[in-house]
Amino acid sequence: FIKPVKPLDVMLALDELTTPQKEEPLRVLLVDDEPDVASYHALLLEQVGMVVKAVHLPSEAFAALERFSPDLLLVDFYMPACSGKELASIIRQQPEYVGLPILYLSSETDSRKQLSAMGAGVEAFLTKPVVPEELVTTVQLHAERLRLLRSLMIRDSMTGLYNHSTTTELIGKSLAHASRNDEAQTMAMIDIDSFKEVNDTHGHLAGDQVIVTLARLLQSRLRQSDIVGRYGGEEFVVLLKQTTAGQARDLMDTLREDFSRIDFHTSDQCFRCTFSVGISAFPRHASTEPLRLAADQALYRAKALGRNRVEV
Ligand code: GH3
Ligand code: MG
Ligand code: MG
Ligand code: MG
């Protein structure tokens, strides 16, 4: 899994990552008792690239919510088994769906009835027959806002990496999985060297640029399945799946070398930066806290031995 190293590769990978990453298509769950109506609405949304699942009974909605994990729910207001309002109220009571955008779709045009239906805490009431552009735009608007809110909660806004609490949670889950499958995993704790000096010499903005660049380097060179988080200011944590300490050391050493060759520019100066790494291995350290502690101690050794190095 160690990709070949050339400074050019690093810069290319960084360039790719400065452009926004391709978004996953929006997912919409549709609940409508009339299959023809449902497929027409599904078609309108699929035409603009969304992924749509339609169910025809309100009772099917919960299983579909769980399995399909949509970004938005589109509910028919009048259905024989249970009204859209009843369904929306029940869904809203579940903590995990508190933020899920719910839109009604109905032939009901009486504004008083519409207003009363909104009492269930839904975002909008669209009337049938729907204007296609209105459906698409309203769905996009609400679903994208939910995506943004979710991302703010789990990621660090500066780098886009997982934030501290998400990183800790994901590492816990990953180690539990590793334990069940007798899998070797490795933690790497990364800390930028003499970063206070970088800030003092080149300014806070240049410092930020270094942090973002390192984040992108890690994200572009590690596997999709690895966990990469910003643990604190200039400190990052990586959990490498199916990787021994020796493999992790080689990989981190390659990244360390690549990073140290990147030129950072301010208006009048060019500078370089390094980082140090501490590595610890699971199952030698059998849970998150001992693993983190061991990585931290290894990092401390790397700093004490002169920085710009990897210690296990
Ligand atoms: P060492 O090699 O021992 O790690 O030295 P250091 O200077 O990197 O360590 P120290 O922990 O003393 O300093 C870290 C500095 O990182 C202090 C803090 O102001 C800075 N910092 C933390 N978060 C950010 C950030 O988001 N942006 C910038 N520009 N600086 C940050
Ligand atoms: Mg109906
Ligand atoms: Mg630090
Ligand atoms: Mg530091």
From TrEMBL:
EC assignment: 2.7.7.65
Annotated ranges, domain Response regulatory: 27-143
Modified residues annotated as 4-aspartylphosphate in this record: 76
Catalytic activity: 2 GTP = 3',3'-c-di-GMP + 2 diphosphate
Cellular-component GO terms for this entry: plasma membrane
GGDEF domain location: 183-312
Molecular function, one GO term: protein kinase activity
GO biological process, one term: cell adhesion involved in single-species biofilm formation
Keyword Phosphoprotein annotated: yes
Named cofactor requirement(s): Mg(2+)
Keyword Phosphoprotein found: yes
Keyword vocabulary terms for this entry: Phosphoprotein, Two-component regulatory system
The protein, known as: diguanylate cyclase
Organism expressing this protein natively: Vreelandella rituensis
High-level lineage: Bacteria, Pseudomonadati, Pseudomonadota, Gammaproteobacteria, Oceanospirillales
